[in-house]
Amino acid sequence: LLPGDSAGGTWLATFDAVERLLVHQDDWSSGPLIQTLDLDDWRATRAAYWQETHLEWHDDTSEKSDEKEGFGNRCTNLERLKTSEPIYIWAGTGSSDQLFLMFAINLLSQLGIDSENVRIVQFEPPDEWHLPYCSMATLSPKDLRSSPTPLRLSPDTLADYETGWSAVTANSPTEVLAYLDKRSEACQYVRRTLERLLLRYPQECSGLPLYDDWLLKNVEKDGPRTVSVLGITLCEIWEVGDSIGDNTLYKRLLRLASSELPRPLVNIQGPTRLYRDTQVTLTDFGKSVVEGRA
Question: How many CB atoms lie within 10 A of CB 104?
Answer without folding.
Answer: 25
